[in-house]
Amino acid sequence: MTAGGGTGAGGAGRPDRRTVLADAAIGVLADAGMRGLTHRAVDAAAGVPLGTTSAYLRTRQALLTALVRRLVELDQGELQELGEQVPALRTVGELVHGIAALTDRRLTGEGRRRSLARYACAVESVRDPELREILVPRENAGRAVVRAFVAARGVPDPEGRTDTLLACIDGLVFDRLVCGGGVRQDEIEGLVAAALRGPGGAPEQPSARPAGPWTPPPE
After folding, report:
1. What is the enclosing helix (H) or strand (E) of 17?
2. Measuring CA to CA, which residue among 22, 90, 28 is closest to residue 56?
């Protein structure tokens, strides 16, 4: 599994050995689960000599910690990129479309494997405070764009509404990983409408727009 990202002693543009091992560990966890995540399995997935992973990440805890840190790095990079592509959302339809693009990324290809690994780590973190701390949601451009849009609609507690909306979207992704299928646009519209509902007011209705790959709105 190659997932882009950190560079180091391997040279400009090349991931360092720990990053290579962490990427391989994400793939092993996605494919084989927690019980299949071993130093030997990571060696094989990374295509390195037997014993390499244990030399760099001696314990299982060290392996898990490196894996989770890399997952967060990749997730943050993805959300930062999405947020930078559209610095200001103008309509509910644009917000729905952007969320649909994110859920599609998280349910297909390498994004799906990362999602499988992420949820396995989330369950593990219930008994591991160190992992739980690493997995705490962090600020990024994507979150900031959603929060700014919610705040601009004048709803109470935009920070809390944003957290709840994103948690619900995360729950839909988890459900589809387990049960199959994709996240429907009407499901996203319903969650967005709930997030934008103010006291005694009706939420803004999304404009008709098909879900699909995200494209920034025209200038």
Report:
1. helix 17-36
2. 22
- Smallest CA-to-CA distance from 97 within 173, 206, 219 is with 206
CA of residue 142 relative to chain centroid, distance: 11
Question: pLDDT of 21-76, one tens digit each?
Answer: 999 999 999 999 999 999 999 999 999 999 999 999 999 999 999 999 999 999 99
Sequence-ordered list of residues with C-beta below 8 angstroms from that of 83, at least 6 positions apart, any chain: 140, 141, 142, 143, 144, 145
| Residue 8 β-bridge partners | 11
Answer for the pair 28, 42: CB distance below 8 angstroms, yes or no: yes
**C-alpha–C-alpha distance, residues 176 and 174, integer Å:** 5
Alpha-carbon distance 18 to 53, whole Å?
A: 8
Using a 10 angstrom Cβ sphere, with 0-12 exposed, 13-18 middle and 19 or more buried, the burial of residue 153 is: middle
Contact 170, 122 (CB under 8 A): no
What backbone phi and psi angles, to 5 degrees, belong to 10? Answer: -70, -10
CA-closest candidate to residue 145, choices 88, 191, 96, 197: 88
pLDDT digits (tens, 9 = 90+) for 61-118: 999 999 999 999 999 998 888 888 877 888 999 999 999 999 999 999 999 999 999 9
